[in-house]
Design goal:
The structure holds 2 protein chains of 2 kinds.
Chain A (H helix, E strand, L loop, with lengths): L3 E4 L2 E4 L5 E7 L5 E7 L5 E9 L2 E4 L6 E3 L9 E3 L8 E8 L9 E2 L3 E5 L1
Parallel strand pairs in A: 2-11
Antiparallel strand pairs in A: 1-3, 3-8, 4-5, 4-9, 5-6, 7-8, 9-10, 9-11
Chain B lengths: L3 E2 L4 E5 L4 E7 L6 E7 L6 E7 L4 E4 L2 E6 L4 E6 L8 E8 L8 E2 L3 E6 L1
Parallel strand pairs in B: 2-11
Antiparallel strand pairs in B: 1-3, 3-8, 4-5, 4-9, 6-7, 7-8, 9-10, 9-11
Classes of the chains: A mainly beta, B mainly beta.
Chain lengths: 114, 113
């Protein structure tokens, strides 16, 4: 059981390039999330999804896009990379249901924009 | 505006002693609270949680206390071990709402042998 898998683990981008961070979960979880963590800061929510075909903005969505075509996958796209997007990105998921409040996180993707 | 605050960026304790990590929240709609532990180069892992209908939850060496009137919670680790050295994040959720977990900035705990 892999849990939440993120790829790539590391990536260096040039300003203006685009890329997609991949996230997949094999736990049949309805909810999926993308967070970013900057040094000395907590995790800030970028986008989240309550199920296939449904996405919504979090606290810091600007510069990102997401899609949720399947229950398993929740890719995060950066269209025009900027230095401010240098961060560690974490994908997470949780099941639906009363009391199902624990998010399971992936190992993270470290992105540097130069 | 930070809804979940961890005002101590770091904490250092001796092995075998108690570690107390604090967290304050401002949103009265939060009714479920979680603590996550994070090692370098890894994702956060769930540690312990508490519902607002309780004021204490215990799991082995870890106990979380909730004071709803003060909007304050704390995580106690007794006895502390060097392997507990990590960043601890407090997080809060309004159940039945947007299902968005809000995190504090974290407290880096160092347990010295």
């Amino acid at each position: 059981n892999a849990g939440v898998t993120q790829t790539p683990k590391f990536r260096i981008l040039k300003i203006g390039q685009s890329m997609t961070l991949q996230c997949a979960q094999d736990m049949n979880h309805n909810y999926m999330y993308w967070y970013r963590q900057d040094p000395g800061m907590g995790l800030k929510l970028i986008y989240y999804s309550v199920g296939a075909g449904i996405t919504d903005k979090g606290e810091v969505p600007n510069g990102y896009n997401v899609s949720r075509s399947t229950t398993e996958d929740f890719p995060l796209r950066l269209e025009l990379a900027a230095p401010s997007q240098t961060s560690v990105y974490f994908c997470a998921s949780k099941p639906w249901g009363p009391g199902a409040n624990v998010l399971t996180f992936g190992a993270g993707s470290r992105l540097t924009v130069l | 505006d930070q809804q979940v605050k961890q005002n101590s960026p770091s904490l250092s304790v001796q092995e075998g002693r108690i570690s107390i990590l604090n967290c304050d929240y401002t949103n009265s709609m939060f009714d479920y609270f979680l603590w996550y532990k994070k090692y370098p180069a890894e994702g956060p892992t769930f540690l312990i949680s508490i519902s607002s209908i309780k004021d204490k939850n215990e799991d082995g060496r870890f106990t979380v206390f909730l004071n709803k009137s003060a909007k304050h919670l704390s995580l106690h680790i007794v006895p502390s071990q060097p392997g507990d050295s990590a960043v601890y994040f407090c997080a809060a959720l309004a159940q039945g709402g947007s299902e968005k977990l809000v995190f504090g900035k974290g407290t880096k705990l160092t347990v010295n042998p």
